[in-house]
Protein backbone atom coordinates (compact mmCIF):
# COMPACT_ATOMS: atom_id res chain seq x y z
CA UNK A 1 0.00 0.00 0.00
CA UNK A 2 1.27 3.47 -0.90
CA UNK A 3 2.16 5.93 1.83
CA UNK A 4 -0.51 8.54 2.48
CA UNK A 5 1.78 11.30 1.19
CA UNK A 6 2.27 9.43 -2.10
CA UNK A 7 -1.45 9.10 -2.83
CA UNK A 8 -3.40 11.23 -5.27
CA UNK A 9 -6.44 13.10 -4.05
CA UNK A 10 -8.67 10.44 -5.63
CA UNK A 11 -6.86 7.78 -3.56
CA UNK A 12 -7.60 9.68 -0.35
CA UNK A 13 -11.39 9.88 -0.60
CA UNK A 14 -14.27 7.44 -0.39
CA UNK A 15 -12.83 5.17 2.30
CA UNK A 16 -11.41 5.19 5.81
CA UNK A 17 -8.28 3.81 7.49
CA UNK A 18 -6.98 3.28 11.00
CA UNK A 19 -4.10 5.67 11.70
CA UNK A 20 -1.08 5.31 13.98
CA UNK A 21 -2.50 8.24 15.98
CA UNK A 22 -5.19 5.86 17.20
CA UNK A 23 -8.09 7.32 15.24
CA UNK A 24 -9.86 6.16 12.12
CA UNK A 25 -9.68 8.78 9.37
CA UNK A 26 -12.00 9.07 6.40
CA UNK A 27 -13.38 11.56 3.92
CA UNK A 28 -16.68 10.39 2.51
CA UNK A 29 -16.30 12.28 -0.76
CA UNK A 30 -17.12 9.83 -3.54
CA UNK A 31 -15.46 11.48 -6.51
CA UNK A 32 -12.85 14.12 -7.31
CA UNK A 33 -12.47 14.98 -10.98
CA UNK A 34 -9.95 17.66 -11.95
CA UNK A 35 -9.50 17.74 -15.72
CA UNK A 36 -10.31 19.71 -18.83
CA UNK A 37 -13.99 19.35 -19.71
CA UNK A 38 -14.91 17.96 -16.29
CA UNK A 39 -18.13 20.00 -16.15
CA UNK A 40 -19.60 17.72 -18.80
CA UNK A 41 -19.54 14.86 -16.29
CA UNK A 42 -22.11 16.46 -14.01
CA UNK A 43 -25.14 14.72 -15.60
CA UNK A 44 -23.48 11.32 -15.23
CA UNK A 45 -22.68 12.04 -11.58
CA UNK A 46 -26.32 12.99 -11.00
CA UNK A 47 -27.57 9.82 -12.66
CA UNK A 48 -25.05 7.59 -10.88
CA UNK A 49 -26.20 8.97 -7.53
CA UNK A 50 -29.84 8.24 -8.36
CA UNK A 51 -30.98 11.85 -7.97
CA UNK A 52 -34.01 13.10 -9.87
CA UNK A 53 -33.95 16.88 -9.66
CA UNK A 54 -30.89 18.97 -8.66
CA UNK A 55 -30.94 22.53 -7.36
CA UNK A 56 -28.15 24.68 -8.80
CA UNK A 57 -26.73 27.53 -6.69
CA UNK A 58 -24.49 30.21 -8.21
CA UNK A 59 -23.93 33.95 -8.10
CA UNK A 60 -23.83 36.32 -11.05
CA UNK A 61 -20.06 35.84 -11.48
CA UNK A 62 -19.87 32.08 -11.07
CA UNK A 63 -22.91 31.50 -13.27
CA UNK A 64 -21.14 33.29 -16.08
CA UNK A 65 -17.90 31.37 -15.42
CA UNK A 66 -19.39 27.87 -15.27
CA UNK A 67 -23.01 27.82 -14.07
CA UNK A 68 -24.55 28.36 -17.47
CA UNK A 69 -22.49 25.46 -18.86
CA UNK A 70 -23.55 23.18 -16.01
CA UNK A 71 -27.18 24.15 -16.64
CA UNK A 72 -26.71 23.51 -20.35
CA UNK A 73 -25.29 20.03 -19.75
CA UNK A 74 -28.17 19.16 -17.42
CA UNK A 75 -30.71 20.36 -19.97
CA UNK A 76 -29.09 18.45 -22.81
CA UNK A 77 -29.15 15.30 -20.68
CA UNK A 78 -32.87 15.73 -20.02
CA UNK A 79 -32.38 16.19 -16.27
CA UNK A 80 -34.91 18.63 -14.77
CA UNK A 81 -33.47 21.14 -12.30
CA UNK A 82 -34.18 24.35 -10.43
CA UNK A 83 -31.70 27.11 -9.75
CA UNK A 84 -30.98 30.31 -7.87
CA UNK A 85 -28.53 32.90 -9.16
CA UNK A 86 -27.63 35.40 -6.45
CA UNK A 87 -27.33 38.87 -7.94
CA UNK A 88 -24.84 40.46 -5.54
CA UNK A 89 -21.40 40.54 -7.26
CA UNK A 90 -19.77 40.94 -3.81
CA UNK A 91 -21.76 38.20 -2.09
CA UNK A 92 -21.14 37.72 1.65
CA UNK A 93 -21.78 34.32 3.31
CA UNK A 94 -24.06 35.61 6.05
CA UNK A 95 -27.58 35.11 7.41
CA UNK A 96 -29.05 37.20 4.60
CA UNK A 97 -27.49 35.02 1.89
CA UNK A 98 -28.56 31.82 3.64
CA UNK A 99 -32.10 33.13 3.98
CA UNK A 100 -32.21 34.26 0.36
CA UNK A 101 -31.35 30.76 -0.85
CA UNK A 102 -33.65 29.02 1.60
CA UNK A 103 -36.58 31.17 0.57
CA UNK A 104 -36.14 30.11 -3.06
CA UNK A 105 -35.19 26.49 -2.50
CA UNK A 106 -37.30 24.00 -4.48
CA UNK A 107 -38.41 21.32 -2.00
CA UNK A 108 -38.75 18.83 -4.85
CA UNK A 109 -34.99 18.92 -5.37
CA UNK A 110 -32.94 16.07 -3.90
CA UNK A 111 -29.42 17.28 -4.73
CA UNK A 112 -27.60 20.63 -4.55
CA UNK A 113 -25.06 21.63 -7.17
CA UNK A 114 -22.82 24.47 -5.99
CA UNK A 115 -21.08 26.38 -8.76
CA UNK A 116 -18.46 28.71 -7.36
CA UNK A 117 -15.56 28.89 -4.94
CA UNK A 118 -15.41 29.98 -1.28
CA UNK A 119 -18.65 31.84 -0.65
CA UNK A 120 -20.96 29.69 -2.78
CA UNK A 121 -19.37 26.49 -1.49
CA UNK A 122 -19.74 27.52 2.17
CA UNK A 123 -23.36 28.57 1.71
CA UNK A 124 -24.23 25.40 -0.22
CA UNK A 125 -22.45 23.15 2.26
CA UNK A 126 -24.32 24.69 5.18
CA UNK A 127 -27.72 24.49 3.45
CA UNK A 128 -27.00 20.95 2.26
CA UNK A 129 -26.28 19.86 5.83
CA UNK A 130 -29.32 21.59 7.31
CA UNK A 131 -31.73 20.34 4.63
CA UNK A 132 -30.17 16.86 4.59
CA UNK A 133 -29.64 17.00 0.84
CA UNK A 134 -26.28 15.89 -0.59
CA UNK A 135 -24.32 18.32 -2.70
CA UNK A 136 -21.61 18.42 -5.33
CA UNK A 137 -19.41 21.41 -6.06
CA UNK A 138 -18.14 22.64 -9.40
CA UNK A 139 -15.16 24.86 -8.65
CA UNK A 140 -14.71 28.11 -10.56
CA UNK A 141 -11.31 29.08 -9.11
CA UNK A 142 -8.39 27.37 -7.28
CA UNK A 143 -8.65 30.07 -4.64
CA UNK A 144 -9.23 28.32 -1.29
CA UNK A 145 -9.01 24.99 0.53
CA UNK A 146 -12.62 24.59 1.59
CA UNK A 147 -13.91 22.41 -1.25
CA UNK A 148 -13.33 19.16 0.66
CA UNK A 149 -13.80 20.57 4.16
CA UNK A 150 -16.62 19.51 6.47
CA UNK A 151 -17.03 22.94 8.08
CA UNK A 152 -18.73 26.09 6.80
CA UNK A 153 -17.37 29.47 7.97
CA UNK A 154 -20.24 31.97 7.84
CA UNK A 155 -20.77 35.50 9.12
CA UNK A 156 -23.25 35.32 11.99
CA UNK A 157 -24.15 38.37 14.07
CA UNK A 158 -21.20 40.19 12.47
CA UNK A 159 -18.68 37.53 13.54
CA UNK A 160 -17.11 34.80 11.43
CA UNK A 161 -18.35 31.54 12.92
CA UNK A 162 -17.39 28.03 11.83
CA UNK A 163 -20.30 25.60 11.57
CA UNK A 164 -20.06 21.84 11.36
CA UNK A 165 -21.46 20.63 8.05
CA UNK A 166 -20.73 17.80 5.61
CA UNK A 167 -18.40 17.06 2.74
CA UNK A 168 -19.57 17.15 -0.88
CA UNK A 169 -20.45 13.96 -2.72
CA UNK A 170 -18.18 15.06 -5.56
CA UNK A 171 -15.73 17.85 -6.41
CA UNK A 172 -15.47 18.91 -10.03
CA UNK A 173 -12.56 21.07 -11.17
CA UNK A 174 -12.78 21.83 -14.87
CA UNK A 175 -9.30 23.05 -15.85
CA UNK A 176 -10.75 25.02 -18.76
CA UNK A 177 -12.75 27.02 -16.20
CA UNK A 178 -9.98 27.24 -13.60
CA UNK A 179 -7.53 28.57 -16.20
CA UNK A 180 -9.87 31.52 -16.80
CA UNK A 181 -10.10 32.46 -13.12
CA UNK A 182 -8.87 35.96 -12.25
CA UNK A 183 -5.13 36.08 -11.52
CA UNK A 184 -5.75 37.30 -7.98
CA UNK A 185 -7.84 34.20 -7.24
CA UNK A 186 -5.03 31.89 -8.37
CA UNK A 187 -2.60 33.86 -6.20
CA UNK A 188 -5.09 33.59 -3.32
CA UNK A 189 -5.09 29.80 -3.64
CA UNK A 190 -1.31 29.80 -3.40
CA UNK A 191 -1.52 32.08 -0.35
CA UNK A 192 -4.08 29.83 1.33
CA UNK A 193 -1.74 26.86 0.96
CA UNK A 194 1.20 28.86 2.34
CA UNK A 195 -0.89 29.56 5.43
CA UNK A 196 -0.58 25.88 6.34
CA UNK A 197 3.07 26.51 7.24
CA UNK A 198 2.11 28.53 10.31
CA UNK A 199 -1.16 26.68 10.88
CA UNK A 200 0.68 23.37 11.30
CA UNK A 201 3.18 25.02 13.66
CA UNK A 202 0.30 26.29 15.79
CA UNK A 203 -1.23 22.81 15.87
CA UNK A 204 2.04 21.35 17.11
CA UNK A 205 2.39 24.11 19.74
CA UNK A 206 -1.12 23.36 20.98
CA UNK A 207 -0.30 19.67 21.24
CA UNK A 208 2.84 20.40 23.27
CA UNK A 209 1.35 23.01 25.59
CA UNK A 210 -2.33 22.16 25.97
CA UNK A 211 -2.32 18.46 25.09
CA UNK A 212 -4.61 18.99 22.11
CA UNK A 213 -5.01 16.01 19.79
CA UNK A 214 -2.38 15.97 17.04
CA UNK A 215 -1.84 13.56 14.15
CA UNK A 216 1.63 13.53 12.62
CA UNK A 217 0.35 11.56 9.61
CA UNK A 218 -2.22 14.20 8.71
CA UNK A 219 0.32 16.95 9.37
CA UNK A 220 2.77 15.27 6.99
CA UNK A 221 0.05 15.01 4.34
CA UNK A 222 -0.53 18.77 4.53
CA UNK A 223 3.21 19.50 4.56
CA UNK A 224 3.59 17.49 1.36
CA UNK A 225 0.82 19.53 -0.28
CA UNK A 226 2.61 22.74 0.78
CA UNK A 227 5.95 21.62 -0.63
CA UNK A 228 4.39 20.57 -3.93
CA UNK A 229 2.68 23.93 -4.22
CA UNK A 230 5.87 25.93 -3.58
CA UNK A 231 7.40 24.39 -6.70
CA UNK A 232 4.48 25.59 -8.86
CA UNK A 233 4.84 29.35 -8.46
CA UNK A 234 6.45 30.15 -11.84
CA UNK A 235 4.00 28.05 -13.86
CA UNK A 236 0.95 29.35 -12.00
CA UNK A 237 1.66 32.85 -13.31
CA UNK A 238 1.58 31.36 -16.82
CA UNK A 239 -1.77 29.64 -16.09
CA UNK A 240 -0.20 26.31 -16.93
CA UNK A 241 -3.00 23.74 -16.65
CA UNK A 242 -0.80 21.06 -15.10
CA UNK A 243 0.24 23.53 -12.39
CA UNK A 244 -3.36 24.61 -11.85
CA UNK A 245 -4.35 20.96 -11.48
CA UNK A 246 -1.63 20.46 -8.87
CA UNK A 247 -2.75 23.59 -6.99
CA UNK A 248 -6.38 22.45 -7.04
CA UNK A 249 -5.31 19.01 -5.81
CA UNK A 250 -3.28 20.56 -2.98
CA UNK A 251 -6.25 22.70 -1.94
CA UNK A 252 -8.49 19.63 -2.02
CA UNK A 253 -5.99 17.53 -0.05
CA UNK A 254 -5.84 20.09 2.76
CA UNK A 255 -9.63 20.02 2.83
CA UNK A 256 -9.48 16.23 3.09
CA UNK A 257 -7.04 16.62 5.98
CA UNK A 258 -9.63 18.72 7.81
CA UNK A 259 -12.25 16.05 7.17
CA UNK A 260 -9.84 13.44 8.54
CA UNK A 261 -9.63 15.13 11.95
CA UNK A 262 -13.14 16.59 12.01
CA UNK A 263 -12.14 20.26 12.23
CA UNK A 264 -9.99 22.89 10.51
CA UNK A 265 -6.91 22.44 12.75
CA UNK A 266 -4.61 20.97 10.03
CA UNK A 267 -5.18 23.99 7.82
CA UNK A 268 -5.93 26.97 10.06
CA UNK A 269 -4.13 28.77 12.86
CA UNK A 270 -2.97 32.24 13.84
CA UNK A 271 -2.72 33.38 10.21
CA UNK A 272 -6.47 32.70 9.91
CA UNK A 273 -7.18 34.63 13.11
CA UNK A 274 -5.57 37.66 11.48
CA UNK A 275 -7.34 37.11 8.16
CA UNK A 276 -10.75 36.60 9.77
CA UNK A 277 -10.30 39.68 11.92
CA UNK A 278 -9.49 41.83 8.89
CA UNK A 279 -12.52 40.42 7.07
CA UNK A 280 -14.81 41.13 10.02
CA UNK A 281 -13.59 44.68 10.35
CA UNK A 282 -14.08 45.26 6.62
CA UNK A 283 -17.64 43.97 6.79
CA UNK A 284 -18.40 46.07 9.87
CA UNK A 285 -17.23 49.08 7.88
CA UNK A 286 -19.55 48.13 5.01
CA UNK A 287 -16.68 47.12 2.72
CA UNK A 288 -17.68 44.06 0.73
CA UNK A 289 -14.76 44.44 -1.67
CA UNK A 290 -12.07 43.47 0.83
CA UNK A 291 -9.14 41.22 -0.06
CA UNK A 292 -9.69 37.59 -0.99
CA UNK A 293 -9.47 35.22 1.95
CA UNK A 294 -6.43 33.34 0.60
CA UNK A 295 -4.59 36.60 -0.01
CA UNK A 296 -5.20 37.65 3.59
CA UNK A 297 -4.08 34.23 4.83
CA UNK A 298 -0.83 34.45 2.87
CA UNK A 299 -0.04 37.89 4.31
CA UNK A 300 -1.04 36.68 7.76
CA UNK A 301 1.31 33.71 7.49
CA UNK A 302 4.25 35.96 6.63
CA UNK A 303 3.52 38.17 9.64
CA UNK A 304 3.24 35.16 11.94
CA UNK A 305 6.60 33.90 10.71
CA UNK A 306 8.01 37.27 11.72
CA UNK A 307 6.56 36.82 15.21
CA UNK A 308 8.34 33.49 15.42
CA UNK A 309 11.56 35.25 14.46
CA UNK A 310 11.05 37.77 17.25
CA UNK A 311 10.46 34.93 19.70
CA UNK A 312 13.67 33.18 18.66
CA UNK A 313 15.60 36.45 18.93
CA UNK A 314 14.26 36.97 22.46
CA UNK A 315 16.18 33.89 23.56
CA UNK A 316 13.87 33.16 26.47
CA UNK A 317 15.23 30.86 29.14
CA UNK A 318 13.18 28.23 30.94
CA UNK A 319 13.30 30.38 34.08
CA UNK A 320 11.98 33.44 32.27
CA UNK A 321 9.21 31.41 30.66
CA UNK A 322 8.07 30.02 34.00
CA UNK A 323 8.16 33.47 35.61
CA UNK A 324 6.04 35.14 32.92
CA UNK A 325 2.48 35.58 34.13
CA UNK A 326 0.73 38.78 33.09
CA UNK A 327 -2.38 39.69 35.06
CA UNK A 328 -5.69 39.63 33.23
CA UNK A 329 -7.61 42.88 33.68
CA UNK A 330 -11.04 41.77 32.50
CA UNK A 331 -12.68 45.20 32.64
CA UNK A 332 -9.88 46.80 30.63
CA UNK A 333 -9.89 43.89 28.19
CA UNK A 334 -13.67 44.11 27.76
CA UNK A 335 -13.41 47.80 26.96
CA UNK A 336 -10.81 47.11 24.31
CA UNK A 337 -12.83 44.23 22.83
CA UNK A 338 -15.86 46.48 22.47
CA UNK A 339 -13.66 49.02 20.68
CA UNK A 340 -11.83 46.49 18.51
CA UNK A 341 -14.87 44.42 17.52
CA UNK A 342 -17.69 46.94 17.51
CA UNK A 343 -21.01 45.24 16.81
CA UNK A 344 -19.32 41.82 16.87
CA UNK A 345 -18.04 42.26 20.46
CA UNK A 346 -20.93 40.43 22.13
CA UNK A 347 -19.97 37.12 20.50
CA UNK A 348 -16.31 37.52 21.53
CA UNK A 349 -17.23 38.35 25.12
CA UNK A 350 -19.50 35.32 25.29
CA UNK A 351 -16.68 33.11 24.02
CA UNK A 352 -14.37 34.30 26.80
CA UNK A 353 -17.09 33.71 29.39
CA UNK A 354 -17.56 30.11 28.26
CA UNK A 355 -13.95 29.20 27.44
CA UNK A 356 -11.83 31.38 29.75
CA UNK A 357 -8.95 31.62 27.28
CA UNK A 358 -7.28 34.38 29.29
CA UNK A 359 -8.00 33.20 32.82
CA UNK A 360 -5.00 33.43 35.21
CA UNK A 361 -5.41 29.75 36.09
CA UNK A 362 -5.20 28.68 32.45
CA UNK A 363 -2.23 30.96 31.84
CA UNK A 364 -0.35 29.54 34.80
CA UNK A 365 -0.89 25.95 33.68
CA UNK A 366 0.14 26.69 30.09
CA UNK A 367 3.29 28.53 31.20
CA UNK A 368 4.26 25.68 33.52
CA UNK A 369 3.96 23.22 30.65
CA UNK A 370 5.75 25.59 28.26
CA UNK A 371 8.70 25.85 30.62
CA UNK A 372 8.90 22.06 30.86
CA UNK A 373 8.79 21.63 27.07
CA UNK A 374 10.57 24.77 25.95
CA UNK A 375 13.22 22.95 23.90
CA UNK A 376 10.50 21.22 21.86
CA UNK A 377 8.61 24.50 21.44
CA UNK A 378 11.76 26.24 20.27
CA UNK A 379 12.34 23.47 17.72
CA UNK A 380 8.85 23.95 16.22
CA UNK A 381 9.75 27.59 15.61
CA UNK A 382 13.33 26.97 14.51
CA UNK A 383 12.47 24.83 11.46
CA UNK A 384 10.04 27.36 9.97
CA UNK A 385 11.01 29.24 6.79
CA UNK A 386 12.04 32.87 6.99
CA UNK A 387 9.29 35.46 6.67
CA UNK A 388 11.27 37.17 3.90
CA UNK A 389 11.31 33.96 1.86
CA UNK A 390 7.55 33.58 2.09
CA UNK A 391 7.06 37.20 1.08
CA UNK A 392 9.15 36.62 -2.02
CA UNK A 393 7.13 33.53 -2.94
CA UNK A 394 3.81 35.35 -2.55
CA UNK A 395 5.07 38.19 -4.72
CA UNK A 396 6.33 35.71 -7.33
CA UNK A 397 2.78 34.50 -8.03
CA UNK A 398 1.45 38.05 -8.20
CA UNK A 399 -0.06 37.90 -4.74
CA UNK A 400 -0.06 40.31 -1.82
CA UNK A 401 2.81 40.04 0.64
CA UNK A 402 2.28 43.00 2.95
CA UNK A 403 -0.67 44.36 4.98
CA UNK A 404 -0.81 47.60 3.01
CA UNK A 405 -1.41 45.63 -0.21
CA UNK A 406 -4.67 44.26 1.19
CA UNK A 407 -5.87 47.50 2.76
CA UNK A 408 -4.67 46.83 6.32
CA UNK A 409 -3.24 49.92 8.00
CA UNK A 410 -1.14 50.28 11.19
CA UNK A 411 -4.02 50.51 13.66
CA UNK A 412 -5.91 47.60 12.12
CA UNK A 413 -2.77 45.49 12.06
CA UNK A 414 -2.08 46.16 15.75
CA UNK A 415 -5.66 45.31 16.72
CA UNK A 416 -5.52 42.06 14.75
CA UNK A 417 -2.25 40.96 16.31
CA UNK A 418 -3.42 41.70 19.86
CA UNK A 419 -7.13 40.85 19.66
CA UNK A 420 -7.48 38.56 16.64
CA UNK A 421 -6.84 35.57 18.88
CA UNK A 422 -10.12 36.23 20.69
CA UNK A 423 -12.11 35.05 17.66
CA UNK A 424 -11.79 31.39 18.62
CA UNK A 425 -10.82 29.23 21.56
CA UNK A 426 -7.87 27.85 19.60
CA UNK A 427 -4.32 27.87 20.95
CA UNK A 428 -1.75 29.49 18.63
CA UNK A 429 1.47 31.44 18.90
CA UNK A 430 -0.65 34.54 19.57
CA UNK A 431 -1.88 33.00 22.82
CA UNK A 432 1.64 31.83 23.66
CA UNK A 433 3.00 35.37 23.22
CA UNK A 434 0.13 36.71 25.33
CA UNK A 435 0.87 34.20 28.08
CA UNK A 436 4.55 35.20 27.96
CA UNK A 437 3.64 38.88 28.25
CA UNK A 438 5.24 39.67 24.89
CA UNK A 439 2.26 40.07 22.55
CA UNK A 440 1.85 43.84 22.86
CA UNK A 441 5.59 44.41 22.54
CA UNK A 442 5.90 42.23 19.44
CA UNK A 443 2.77 43.76 17.89
CA UNK A 444 4.20 47.26 18.26
CA UNK A 445 7.51 46.14 16.79
CA UNK A 446 5.86 44.45 13.81
CA UNK A 447 3.60 47.40 13.06
CA UNK A 448 6.58 49.76 13.16
CA UNK A 449 8.52 47.46 10.88
CA UNK A 450 5.73 47.01 8.33
CA UNK A 451 4.96 50.71 8.08
CA UNK A 452 8.44 52.19 8.61
CA UNK A 453 8.39 54.03 5.28
CA UNK A 454 5.09 55.73 6.14
CA UNK A 455 6.35 57.21 9.39
Give a brief rundown of this model:
The chain is built from 21 helices and ten strands. Helices cover 55% and strands 11% of the residues.
* Radius of gyration, whole Å: 22 Å
Summed over residues and divided by their number, the pLDDT gives a mean of 93
Helix content: 55-70%
Report, as a whole number of angstroms, the end-to-end distance.
58 Å
Largest sheet composition: 6 strands, parallel
User: What is the assembly state of the chains in this entry?
Assistant: single chain
Shape: globular
Spatial strand order of the main sheet: 3-10-7-6-4-5
Number of strands: 10
Helix/strand layout:
Blueprint: H1 9-12, E1 16-18, E2 24-26, E3 31-35, H2 42-48, E4 54-59, H3 60-76, E5 82-86, H4 95-104, E6 111-116, H5 118-131, E7 135-139, E8 151-156, E9 159-164, E10 170-174, H6 175-178, H7 183-210, H8 216-230, H9 233-237, H10 241-261, H11 270-284, H12 293-314, H13 318-323, H14 330-341, H15 345-355, H16 360-372, H17 374-382, H18 387-396, H19 410-419, H20 429-435, H21 439-450
Parallel strand pairs: 3-10, 4-5, 4-6, 6-7, 7-10
Antiparallel strand pairs: 1-2, 8-9
Structural features, described:
There is one protein chain. With 455 residues, this protein is of the alpha/beta class. It is 55% helix and 11% strand. The chain is built from 21 helices and 10 strands. Helix 7 runs antiparallel to helix 8, helix 8 packs antiparallel against helix 10 and helix 11 packs across helix 19. The radius of gyration is 22 Å and the shape is globular. The model has no long low-confidence stretch (mean pLDDT 93).
Amino acid sequence: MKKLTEMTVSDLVGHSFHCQCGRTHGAQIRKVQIASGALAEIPEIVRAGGWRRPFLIADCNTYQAAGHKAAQYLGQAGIPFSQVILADPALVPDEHAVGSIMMRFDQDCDLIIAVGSGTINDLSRFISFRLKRPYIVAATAPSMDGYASMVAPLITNNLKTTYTAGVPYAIIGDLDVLAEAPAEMIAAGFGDIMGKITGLADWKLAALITGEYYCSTVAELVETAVNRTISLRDKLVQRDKAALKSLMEALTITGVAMAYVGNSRPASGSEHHLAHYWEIRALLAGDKEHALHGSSVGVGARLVLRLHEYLREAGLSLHRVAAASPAFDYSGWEKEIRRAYGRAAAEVLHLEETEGKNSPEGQKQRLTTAAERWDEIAEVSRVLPKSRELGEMLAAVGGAASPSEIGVGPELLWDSLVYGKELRARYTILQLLYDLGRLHEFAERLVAEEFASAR
